[in-house]
Amino acid sequence: MAEAEELRTVPTYQDILDTVCEELNKVSASDIELSESTDITTDLNVDSVAVMDLLFALEEHYDISVPLNELGEIRTVGQLARLVQQMAVKS
Amino acid sequence: MADLFDKFQYIRQAHAQMVEAAGGDPLGVRVERILSPTEAEVGGRRCVLLGSNNYLGLTFDPDAIEAACAALRTSGTGTTGSRVANGSYASHQDLERQLAGFFGRRHAILFTTGYQANVGFLSAIAGKDDTILIDSDSHASIYDGCKLGDATVLRFKHNDAADLERRLRRLPAGSNKLVVLEGIYSMLGDRAPLADLVAAAKAHDAYILLDEAHSLGVLGEGGRGLAAEVGVEDQIDFLIGTFSKSVGTIGGFCVSNHPELEAVRLAARAYLFTASLPPSIVASASATLERIRTDASLRERLWRNTDIVYDGLKDLGYTVGPDKTPVIGVKMPDAEVGLVVWHTLMQHGVYVNLALPPATPQGTCLLRCSVCAAHTREQLQTVLDGFEAARAVLADQGAKVRAAE
Ligand SMILES: Cc1ncc(COP(=O)(O)O)c(C=O)c1O
């Protein structure tokens, strides 16, 4: 029961941002402090395939599917978190 | 002023570092002389080719060469036109009928390469309200075809039928869904668990496209690929393939029983806006396809050789892909070590492909080997001797990496 209720609540933007940072830290070799405006490719040197792989973890965490079409516009950590939030609201 | 090429600075730096570390450019290997399907002169040295995709060794098939020469003489060096203009010769249409017969399908469409077959078909078929679900390890041509189309594109976990099923379940019933799979994956050589993936797709009324690039001529009765081997050919809506591997030349195709397949000829831009295959290529593809269909001994030899290389590498302690197929991805701890091992193999007269991210799954560095039916026992011994010599280098490099950490 508790689990079902948890699924229904939409996660906050801050929650998602924290999760995104946590996942990015796993794949990035960079030591820089992550913020919303950190550029995933140029600041963290995380390539596009690694971003897609990281998406699997976020999709699982929030039980969503994020279309690859949406990923093209994403540059920063904040944009990625906002995209995940949009998808979580839709589902 | 900024330079248009500034954006490549990072790639160029990484490449320069790689060339320096390897003492040569693994991405710029010059084949000075090709001696046979399995041997070439590279850098003044004879090498056994263990990275050619030439699974059946048919690039020097005498019948194919004769047919190509005859076509050159009678029909010239090129068609200089699209299939929808002056580039549809009788031989193109005959080859399409032959392909349809080969796979037991009603329709076949030739493309100029396998890359164009995927890009052309996928971008044309993908409408705004449709969803394409692709395996995460899909070939670049599948990703690119999706990018050019208007459909929603979802990526499911590699070879994971449960993950595919979960994603299909979230989609509205009644909407068009297309699941894209490959027979043998080109980097690690693993097979798709086709029965499970097909069951998941069909439970949600999804269409299935299967790219048999590396499994045509390699698996299944008559060399028809993984779907034939698994017994699910009737569930595969669209089968895509290439002539650039076991068929030993160049070209791509799509075969299907879908009554409307012909519409693709009027919609796929990679079909419309490019010249058709030269007649000599069509003639050699036709000859080798017939050989593949009728000569099972080629496949038997290929698999015997695959046993030798796959088992041999495993016995030497190398980490190889999970399935035994003629595509053998040998995992390296990182790119730096991979380079040194690759170079050592070259020095021992063994050419393999050095595969680096983003072409490889999960950012790994692979020494990608492809076995050929025409490899002799002696050549395979040279291969295993090379890998044995490289083992010492690998251990040494591995220790260095650990010490640096
Ligand atoms: C799975 C897959 N599809 C398509 C292609 C493209 O084939 P072609 O060389 O005919 O363009 C390849 C070859 O690299 C491949 O591995």
Within CATH, the superfamily of the largest domain in chain B carries the name Type I PLP-dependent aspartate aminotransferase-like (Major domain)
Query: What's the story with the biggest beta sheet of chain B?
Result: 7 strands, mixed
Q: What is the strand content of chain A?
A: under 5%
Q: Into which percentage range does the β-strand content of chain B fall?
A: 15-25%
By CATH, the superfamily of chain A comes out as: ACP-like
Low-confidence stretches of chain A: 1-5
**Uncertain parts of chain B:** none
Description:
The complex is a heterodimer of chains A (91) and B (405). Chain A is mostly helical. Chain A has a single domain (2-90), classed as Non-ribosomal Peptide Synthetase Peptidyl Carrier Protein, Chain A (Orthogonal Bundle). Chain A is built from 4 helices and no strands. Chain A has helices at residues 2-8, 13-27, 48-62, 77-90. Chain A is globular, with a radius of gyration of 13 Å. Chain B is an alpha/beta fold and 405 residues long. Chain B has 14 helices and 14 strands. Chain B has 2 domains: 13-49 and 296-396, Alpha-Beta Complex (Aspartate Aminotransferase, domain 1), CATH 3.90.1150.10; 61-294, Type I PLP-dependent aspartate aminotransferase-like (Major domain) (Aspartate Aminotransferase, domain 2, 3-Layer(aba) Sandwich). Chain B has a 7-stranded mixed sheet, sandwiched between helices. In chain B, strands 1-2-3-12 form a 4-stranded mixed sheet. The mean pLDDT of chain B is 95. Classes of the chains: A mainly alpha (91), B alpha/beta (405). The interface between A and B is medium-sized, with 13 and 13 residues.
Short description:
The complex is a heterodimer of chains A (91) and B (405). Chain A has 91 residues and is an all-alpha fold.
